[in-house]
Fold each of these.
Amino acid sequence: MSDQTDPSPIITIERHILDEQAFHPEATGTLTNILYDLALAGKVIASKTTRAGLAEILGRTEDINVQGETVLKLDRFADLTVTRLTDHTGRLAGLASEENAEFLPIPDQYPMGKYLLVFDPLDGSSNVDYNMPVGTIFGIYRRLKESGPAETAEFLQPGRNLVASGYIAYGTSTIFVYTAGHGVHGFTLDPHVGEFLLSHPNIEIPKAKYFSVNLGYQMYWSLGVQRYTEYLQGREGGVKGLSLRYIGTLVSDFHRNLLAGGVFYYPADSKDPKAPSGKLRLLYEAAPLAFIAEQAGGYASDGNGPILDIEPTSLHQRTPLFIGNKELIEKVEEFIRGLDGAD
Ligand code: AFP
């Protein structure tokens, strides 16, 4: 007879990350600790996002960030939380955040580490006012220099070099999803226990159910992207049965499609001549999620080739992004090649 009082195995994020370290006998535990630090940042940020409507935190600051957007107080809080939990540990050599024009060096009084952190502290923050989900995205690279202060060039690495990446989705529950190159794993925050517990081991993207895109911009897209959209709508030999879902928070749209199957895209458009590559940032958003997509059996492309192969030329570089089920993302490359003259 089974013992009814014996709880089913509970795997905390700490235990899981530590177990993963076994894949790397040479590991010193530094990466493991960075992931713990980020999980802690996620808990702290979640404690604010769930109270955003109540707290003094809601409302805009008077600042404009490097992307030209109004900085919400919650963005700043998330940015500072990640920074303050990671900059003094001796694990990082520098941090680059979507909120800051330049990367943040490690303050002089703290030791230098061998990793670089790139992050979007609060993705989808314009949704906060409407009680919609938001998220944090991160990527971890090994630094290129052996020692000395970090340099911008060290951050400009292709996504293929990512050692780990992940996101924290602040929705109806808080979920931490990461990959360190051995599959994709998701942990749900148990608010009573205060721990992230393994809820989604070895995530693999299932057959597509959804497509997610801001159709309001359709008239600004290339012919190839327009025809691809019609293909997803099932017209003229296209795929049948996909539903449209679009939240406008990349983390949430990506997370849903990762679990349910589907594609998200934010293509290049002619809406804003100053941003011909669309809105999303290669370093802070596209590359970290591309690593997760590939680890889950999916694919991410800029329409011409893998996101993970793009060599960044600047910290805040933008890129078109098509991400999700592999065969549907390869299809958009076909449309773009055939109709837009891309090579
Ligand atoms: P905000 O952080 O300004 O809300 O932008 C979120 C975002 O970068 C990404 O999370 C969404 O997928 C995308 O913008 C939505 O942009 P549109 O409002 O142009 O569809």
Amino acid sequence: MKKFYITTPIYYVNARPHIGHAYTTIACDTIARRQRMLGVDTYFLTGTDEHGQKIERAAQAAGKSPQQLTDEVSAQFRALWDRMGLTYDDYIRTTEERHKKSVQQLFRTIRDNGFIYKGTYTGQYCVYDELYVDATEPGAPCPECGRPTETVHEENYFFKLSAFQDKLLRLYNEQPDFIRPETRRNEVMSFVRSGLRDLSISRSTFSWGIPVPDDPKHVIYVWLDALANYITALGYGTADDKLFRKYWPADVQMIGKEIVRFHCVYWPAFLMAAGIPLPKGIVAHGWLLFEENKMSKSRGNIVRAETILDVLGNDALRYFLLREIVFGQDGSFSFDALVQRYNSDLANGLGNLASRTLTMIARYRGGEVPKPAQVEDSIADAARKVIAEYGAAFDQFQFSRALEGAWGLVAAVDKYIVENAPWALDEKKDETSRAHLGTVLYTSAEALRIVTALAHPVIPEATAKIWAQLGLGDIKKLSLAGLQWGELQPGTRLGKIEPVFPRADKSAIERMQTMEEQGRTAAGAPEPKPVEVPKVTAAPVTPDGKITIDDFAKVELRVGQVKVAERVPKADKLLRLEVDLGTEVRQVVAGIAESYAPETLIGRKVVIVANLAPRKLRGLESNGMIVAASPEGGKAILAGFWEDVPVGTRLK
Ligand code: ME8
């Protein structure tokens, strides 16, 4: 039996899931479902990435232990995937014992094969991307995210990445499908051609990670730890490795485009060094944008899947993401577009075709599929073409094209029904009209069956209902392998007819927008944090992790006086302030609305981080940050002075 192994990235647990994560996971789920329907022995893996400095710091900031934070957020991801009915076969957490042991085994194997040595790393590191950055300047911006890098000076274990430059280039040349799409492949090839340096693969200045075997002062670099999940989940390097032997190498490893380098350079190099076969292909999709930016927890411009599930349901989210976005490219999300697509393709499209076809069979033929007098070649040929092209497009990850084709058939049948006017045929009562009516009803029902079967991996809930309404029983039993025109048996008795996609009105958009606004400001939400201690951690560090006085001096703290304070509409926690700094009046957006009524702040002297890069919160530009104590679980308390102090005075 053919096997198929598909993986998603494992998601960081520093914030809750959003529809960007759902996008990758839904795409993989859809592919996995289709493979299973084709009779292929399929294994689908997802999970969470729980180690590293970024998670350790997120836990600190949340006043939790790293384990506590990771347990909570990993469970949130999993609960959401379960609510969405995602059919993953295993959910790996990198803090699990099985993973740790297996990663250590991988490390040992690479070391025994001579690709690991000890050295000293001095250079820049981006904690946000957990990336060693090729820059010499302390605080140099990360080339990936633009955040200031931190200087790391540590004794580390190094991986001989430089030994793999030629082998990797050979791989990309000999196996062009190793990286898809082509644009990503070209980027990776030029990166590798420009030369590969050895890679530090351990850290020793924090402890939230997997200890290096035989040298537990070091923890394994989080990307080596994380990438290994794809094989540790299968039991690699343990006594029980039957899944590894059965399913590895992976057939498809799906990722977002920002983590291509890790998956297409480091990952195959680690595997080559360990003598493990390489995955057949890494597939990188584009970004989901919201309000013109990449949707991301750090920007705070996220949309939660739960909102869409509550208002329009699971299938609406799945269909929208796969139909609207050209896979591989960036695509914008908006509630307007979601509702429009839902109404046009699901409510008025498939939903309407199902209800009119089934209702007519119920009304004109007592709920029994009639025998057609002839095969309607125009529709049958169109259906055959769709079946062939749908599979081919799917295999190329062109979900949007596949669905467009299938919905082309929906439109063709709609037109066919209108042109043949079954309601008029029913009125005529003569034998020819009766036979013709049988043909029209059968043809419509058979086309509906085919679209339903093809669309099942994408919109599993509604298609299961339509399938049962067509009298075909449990769609899970359907094999896609032999799907062809004419299999619908005349005489099949329909099931109970119920609408599957009720039309959404304008209020759906408003409801979702309001839910998102509330969700963003609700407890536990990753509210953009205008109230926090200055990010001195982002400044360069000395070898023992302390910053120098020069580094602290980079943070410009000044006394300001609040001139204007008002609530930000629909944001429970935010206030918009105008703060006089002596030389200018600045707009600052601060998350202190729960602690202070706006009117109590007018005239108050506060501490402002004056040289913070501007950022937007709820569309308002915030030029600086107000300093406050943020007690765990409590409300923010503004820093202030007992004595009077002139506006604009610098704190140092
Ligand atoms: O990078 N648009 O985890 P992560 C599309 N732990 N996809 C998006 C997206 C968006 N706006 N935002 C997130 C990590 N994603 C590492 C991976 S793998 C060994 C370790 C999806 O939580 C997309 O798949 O930052 C992206 O690659 C992934 O989530 C990043 O999730």
